[in-house]
Specification:
about 240 residues; alpha+beta; four-stranded antiparallel sheet; three-stranded antiparallel sheet
Length: about 240
């Protein structure tokens, strides 16, 4: 996902003398790149306030592409590289725009983990381990679940974090879910709600954060860039 932030540099450029204008492509590329970095830092810094981060993948996925001094690439951007490895879909797009999340890959439902599943996984912020994910739970037999090796071969793996639970998918009282029950108890608990779609709110606000960072940083970065160039000595191009 690539979003555009605009900056008006016309007033700053108008104040340059002829010698400085010869160095404009370099100065502008440098300034735009540093502004993009400021936007990247602001977006990364706000992720923890907006989302529960269970690893560093999303933060590392906030990247920039620097501007070049050639006229056709006087653009720097901040973008996301957060594609789901299985579907190829950038999962942060819906976080920015909001909308409906629907099943992919031939599935009919989305599995939404419940607080009971989260408790088994280790808490609200814990990463759900492979053996507690829907396919593993439904494929479990005698304490093992069907999985694949690194070579793509089918293999039975131990199901370690079940605490004596058995799992199955069923619609009960109009609610389709993956249910769990301890083998020595009659009480059942929903582990995953199976729903046809999930409504997502626009919680990311990446565009607004980048634009704000650019607006706040451009003037200072522009002045600092020229100051460093003057200290090094401007030279007339041959």
């Amino acid at each position: 996902m690539i979003l555009t932030a605009k900056v008006d540099a016309s007033a700053a450029i108008a104040g340059l003398n002829e010698l400085e204008k010869q160095h404009l492509p370099f100065a502008l590329a440098k300034t735009l790149t540093l502004c993009a970095k400021a936007g990247q830092e602001k977006v990364r810094g706000g992720l923890g306030d907006k989302f529960t981060l269970r690893n560093t993948f999303t933060m590392r996925g906030i990247r920039i592409k620097p501007a070049l001094k050639v006229a056709r690439r006087q653009i720097a951007d901040v973008h996301t590289a957060t594609e789901n490895r299985k579907t190829g879909i950038d999962y942060m797009v819906k976080q920015e725009t909001g909308g409906e999340k629907v099943p992919h890959g031939g599935s009919m439902h989305i599995a939404v983990p419940t607080r009971f599943l989260r408790m088994l996984a280790g808490g609200p912020s814990a990463i759900i381990p492979q053996e507690l994910r829907p396919r593993a739970l439904l494929g479990a037999v005698a304490g093992r679940y069907s999985g694949t090796t690194s070579k793509g071969q089918i293999a039975l793996r131990p199901q370690r974090i079940t605490k004596g639970y058995e799992f199955w998918k069923e619609e009960i009282d109009g609610h389709l879910a993956i249910w769990g029950r301890q083998v020595d108890s009659r009480e059942i608990k929903p582990m995953y709600w199976m729903v046809p779609e999930v409504k997502m709110r626009d919680a990311f606000h990446m565009h607004a954060d980048v634009q704000k960072a650019v607006d706040e940083s451009f003037a200072g970065i522009w002045e600092e860039t020229w100051e460093k160039m003057h200290l090094k000595g401007l030279r007339i191009k041959s």
